[in-house]
Amino acid sequence: EAQVTQNPRYLITVTGKKLTVTCSQNMNHEYMSWYRQDPGLGLRQIYYSMNVEVTDKGDVPEGYKVSRKEKRNFPLILESPSPNQTSLYFCASSLYASQQGKYEQYFGPGTRLTVT
Amino acid sequence: GESVGLHLPTLSVQEGDNSIINCAYSNSASDYFIWYKQESGKGPQFIIDIRSNMDKRQGQRVTVLLNKTVKHLSLQIAATQPGDSAVYFCAEKYSNTGKLIFGQGTTLQVKP
């Protein structure tokens, strides 16, 4: 089944404790992206990757890191989480990232993160 | 920074009627626009997209209209059904990048 998976789905952690949220897709997609969703603010892009070893900042990259060593995986790293990073996080992927490509984006189920 | 906005936070329609959800965007250089649907407890789901060199695109029961002159995007849903109840987001892609900016969303409520 074609899908985007995220782990963990729920996480409660404390300020300053490094964490990683994994994202994996089995569709051989070039483009992958991370978003956070907060009430009243909609979806905001954190980082995106056009292909392996190519990553770029989205709208709200501060406090986050990503890597794209393999095509299927795009982990989101919070080196020192703070309470303002409490949010619902979504990973997404699309087949093509070229100039004329489509960005349909298949979204994962979301990871609800609470930082105390 | 620039952002994509939706005109109405909530839209309530009668089952069977047509729905129109509007979106205003700010970046005249954006080259690609997308509509997503998000049901409660789920991730967003792609509905339809349109490139900046087009002004209309039709899908199954949905039509997207793009007016670049006034930087306006709309999603029309024909014969709205209860299953269409969800939050709808528009998004714009900045030209020559993979950067996507989403609007805040419009909640569509379908009354039986």
Task: Describe the 3D structure.
The complex is a heterodimer of chains A (116) and B (112). With 116 residues, chain A is mainly beta. In chain A, 0% of the residues lie in helices and 49% in strands. Chain B is globular and about 45 Å long. In chain B, 0% of the residues lie in helices and 55% in strands. In chain B, strand 6 and strand 7 form a beta hairpin. Chain B is built from no helices and 11 strands. The chains are: A mainly beta (116), B mainly beta (112). Chains A and B meet through strand 4, strand 5 and strand 10 of A and strand 4, strand 5, strand 9 and strand 10 of B.
Q: Give the rounded overall mean pLDDT of chain B.
A: 91
- State the helicity of chain A in percent bands: under 10%
Q: Let me know the largest β-sheet of chain A.
A: 7 strands, mixed
Helix content of chain B: under 10%
Structural class of chain B: mainly beta
Number of DSSP helices of chain A? 0
Runs of chain B in which pLDDT lies below 50 for 5 or more consecutive residues are none
End-to-end gap of chain A: 36 Å
Overall outline of chain A:
globular
Largest interface: A-B, 29 and 23 residues
Q: Spans of chain A with pLDDT under 50 lasting ≥5 residues?
A: none
Series of H and E elements of chain B:
EEEEEEEEEEE
- The global form of chain B is globular
The overall pLDDT average of chain A reads 94
Cα-to-Cα separation, first versus last residue of chain B: 40 Å
| Number of E strands of chain A | 11
What percent strand of chain A? over 45%
Q: What is the tally of beta strands of chain B?
A: 11
Rg on CA atoms of chain A, Å: 13 Å
Look at the helices and sheets of chain A and give the structural class. mainly beta
Looking at how many chains there are and whether they match, the oligomeric state comes to: heterodimer
